[in-house]
Amino acid sequence: MTVLTPPFRIVVVEDNDTLRELLVSYLERPGREVFAADTGDGLNALLASQAINLVVLDVNLPYEDGLAIARRLRQSHPAVKIVMLTARVRAVDRTAGYDAGADVYLTKPTNVAELDAVVRNFVARREDTAPAGSYILNRSARVLTTPQRRQAVLSAAETVVIEQLALAGEAGVEMERLMQALHESSGTAITRENLAVTVSRLRQKLTDELSTTGLIVTVRHHGYRLGQFVRLE
């Protein structure tokens, strides 16, 4: 008997018609159903009629902003994943987003390829396709756990690096994108030299504290990728 996996259902909540249509069109893939709403009320109607897995949520919405919606959603539908999209790039805004319940916080202009990578990661986690003995990154605690259950506490910058690489999967992340993510997290300008130092120190920490080598792989003329699967929590 064949057991059919239900589609992964996504709601894009965005009041800009053009961007909403673009995101819906881009995220539609086999095995996914993508719905659209322009307000919190529209989202509520979909939540009442569909088993939603993920909400892509704009922060600056009319009537009820994304932060309020996220707090409410986290209480009423704790299993639903939340990806926030916003033009607010300050570290304090990112913190507010995570405090409200966001699982992932992405800044505008929206990088649709990065958003799709986030969705693929959530789909993989729902289907439990993470290989046995994966690394685990607890982003709120900033702790990386090895398959052997050894743990290392990471800095904020180190956590951002591994998070971005885990979201990207095998494609890896360009240096410029990593620099932007670090800038958005810290609020300070990041150069290639800063990034190289962060990665070097992270690799050394992984070796010294976890006896791990090869987790972060340099992709020549591009950036970095993970050498092994890291599950995000």
Distance between the termini: 33 Å
Per DSSP E runs of 2 or more residues, the count of β-strands stands at: 12
CATH architecture of the largest domain: 3-Layer(aba) Sandwich
Number of helices: 8
Order of helices and strands: EHEHEHEHEHEEEHEHHEEE
Low-confidence runs of at least 5 consecutive residues: none
- CATH topology name of the largest domain, in short, is Rossmann fold
Mean pLDDT over all positions: 86
Quaternary structure of the protein: single chain
Strands ordered across the widest β-sheet: 2-1-3-4-5
Q: Given the helix and strand composition, which structural class is it?
A: alpha/beta
Q: Number of folding domains?
A: 2
Q: Which class of the largest domain in CATH terms? A: Alpha Beta
Biggest sheet overview: 5 strands, parallel
Strand content: 15-25%
The shape, in one word, is: globular
Task: Provide structural commentary.
The protein is an alpha/beta fold. It has two domains: 8-126, 3-Layer(aba) Sandwich (Rossmann fold); 135-232, Arc Repressor Mutant, subunit A (Orthogonal Bundle). It is built from eight helices and twelve strands. The protein has helices spanning 17-27, 40-49, 66-76, 91-100, 112-126, 156-168, 175-186, 192-210; strands spanning 8-13, 32-37, 54-58, 81-86, 104-107, 135-138, 143-145, 151-153, 173-174, 216-219, 223-226, 230-232. The chain has a five-stranded parallel β-sheet with strand order 2-1-3-4-5, sandwiched between helices. A four-stranded mixed β-sheet has the order 8-7-6-12, with helices on one face. Strands 9-11-10 form a three-stranded antiparallel β-sheet. Helix 3 runs parallel beside helix 4 and helix 6 packs across helix 7 (175-186). The two termini are 33 Å apart. The model has no long low-confidence stretch (mean pLDDT 86).
